[in-house]
């Protein structure tokens, strides 16, 4: 007998109200995106031999079904929609329906064999929700403050009330994030460890803990590509184009950028590194990306090696 049974790939297209699945070339179906419908789907999947479900990231609608599948012991892969559409374009597939997408997801899994999803720690999941709510409040506050200078007397009063409300909500969410991290031993110890680096504050440490569960478990080069701060080559023949960063987890990269700007001013080692690059004629944004990458490698090493000490 082989050591590992080949998985039975299943395509699953997730929508708000329904789930379209493709078990094989002849067995397709649809069920409601409700507790009863999901239970019916899981029962059907358990009848298969070594099922592995391929689903797209659907703006959050996939979280419940993914969590229930993992809890039921069924392997799941959550893939980027853009990569799946790229396969459709490569096949010359122009039509798009939920059923066609389920078939496409099954073929994508068979060809690409994406990495398996892992169950999210409930404490990390709650921290992620709090950070997402904080980001939404911050975006709304920036929009209100941008409208205030041009508002008339009547609208100005309304906007000021809205601004005060958003500021109070931000303070509440900030306190909830701090208390949640302090009350969890694992998150609390990692957060203190990360903040040993000058320029790393509570928001960056919380963002890394929430959105980068791989921190401290993979190599720094892989982590840089995962976040999207690793420059990729774009060469052809004798042409050597400038390298650019792309892809990755933007919600982490945005916070890391502001921390890098702060580090160039308050961190003596990273600040000197930035100035050396500037002295060589490198553009400022290129130097900041290099600082982001070096900072990320340092934070990864801090979590990876408890005995590692800063200079």
Describe the structure.
- This protein is α/β, with parallel strands linked by helices.
- It has three domains: 8-112, 2-Layer Sandwich (Nucleotidyltransferase, domain 5); 122-183; 189-234 and 241-311, no CATH class.
- 59% of the residues lie in helices and 10% in strands.
- It has twelve helices and seven strands.
- The chain has helices spanning 35-46, 63-71, 81-91, 98-112, 122-147, 153-183, 185-194, 202-211, 220-227, 250-266, 268-279, 284-304, and strands spanning 8-14, 18-22, 28-32, 51-56, 75-79, 235-236, 239-240.
- The strands form two sheets. Strands 3-2-1-4-5 form a five-stranded mixed sheet. Strands 6-7 form a two-stranded antiparallel sheet.
- The radius of gyration is 23 Å and the shape is globular.
- The model has no long low-confidence stretch (mean pLDDT 93).
């Amino acid at each position: 007998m082989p050591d590992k049974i080949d998985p039975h790939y299943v395509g699953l297209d997730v929508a708000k109200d329904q789930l379209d699945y493709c078990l094989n070339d002849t067995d397709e179906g649809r069920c409601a995106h409700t507790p009863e419908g999901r239970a019916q789907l899981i029962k059907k999947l358990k009848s298969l031999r070594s099922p592995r479900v391929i689903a797209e990231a659907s703006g959050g609608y996939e979280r419940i079904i993914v969590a229930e599948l993992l809890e039921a012991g069924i392997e799941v892969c959550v893939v980027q929609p853009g990569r799946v559409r790229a396969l459709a374009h490569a096949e010359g597939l122009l039509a798009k329906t939920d059923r066609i997408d389920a078939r496409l997801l099954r073929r994508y899994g068979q060809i690409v064999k994406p990495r398996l999803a892992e169950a999210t720690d409930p404490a990390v999941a709650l921290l992620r929700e709090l950070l997402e709510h904080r980001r939404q409040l911050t975006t709304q506050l920036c929009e209100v403050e941008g409208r205030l200078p041009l508002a008339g007397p009547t609208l100005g009063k309304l906007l000021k009330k809205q601004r005060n409300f958003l500021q109070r909500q931000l303070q509440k969410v900030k306190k909830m994030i701090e208390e949640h991290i302090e009350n969890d031993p694992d998150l609390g110890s990692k957060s203190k460890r990360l903040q040993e680096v000058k320029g790393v504050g509570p928001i960056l440490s919380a963002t890394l803990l929430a959105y980068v569960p791989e921190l401290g478990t993979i190599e720094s080069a892989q982590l840089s590509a995962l976040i999207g701060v690793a420059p990729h080559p774009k060469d052809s023949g004798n042409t050597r184009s400038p390298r650019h960063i792309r892809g990755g987890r933007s919600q982490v990269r945005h916070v890391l950028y502001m921390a890098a700007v702060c580090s160039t001013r308050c961190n003596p080692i990273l600040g000197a590194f930035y100035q050396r690059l500037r002295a060589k004629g490198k553009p400022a944004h290129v130097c900041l990306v290099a600082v982001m990458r070096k900072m990320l490698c340092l934070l990864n090493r801090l979590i990876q090696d408890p005995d590692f000490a800063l200079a």
